[in-house]
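Exam revision sheet. Question 4 asks you to relate a sequence to its structure. Input first:
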Amino acid sequence: MSRGWLTLGSFKGAPIRLHWSIVVGALLWSRFTFRPVMWLAFVALILVHELGHALLVLRYRLGLSEIAVHGAGGYCMHQRAGSRFEESAIAWGGVLAQLLVLLAAGVALLVLGPPATSAAADASYVLIDANLWLIAINLIPIGPLDGAKAWPLVGMLFSRFRKRGEPPASEPAPRTVHDELRALEQLETRPETPSQRTERLVRELIARTTQPKDR
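Answer key, structure tokens:
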């Protein structure tokens, strides 16, 4: 243990650390009663949240450096900053991990029925009721909560889908010899005989059709 931190293990080379303040946070959730299953479920839920962030940090190759859990929540650190889109997606990672836990706990209740013991009831409370509260609080768009970075992703995704739905810009049709002749006939010229005019149009047409095109 170093400065109040306990290294629990590692994930893809990044240490997983727990701070002593977890005890205070767990006691607050249990209203200062002795409920060890609720405490463990509380710590596990926060750890799952941070692992959700970590998986997306690995997905974008930003250099996962540390995963930590403390009494007020936790954090996931990475070595390199990502783009605005990547940082926003990483912010959603924790909430999505909690939603998976919520789904699994809900399915377990449907299959197994209501909790039969006080320990199971405590675990159910943390994984469903407290989980929903933590998701709602964490999505408030105020820093340092994840919602400050998470919600802009909705606008970015909407903008991407809208651009994909737009028809591609059509290129102008190539000019034909007939188009070139009509353009030459509309040029202002000095008085000339029909034969002079014909010779001039032929020369200018050859010059226009043989000059190299810009790429």
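Marking note for examiners. Residues 184 and 204 are 8 Å apart (CA to CA).
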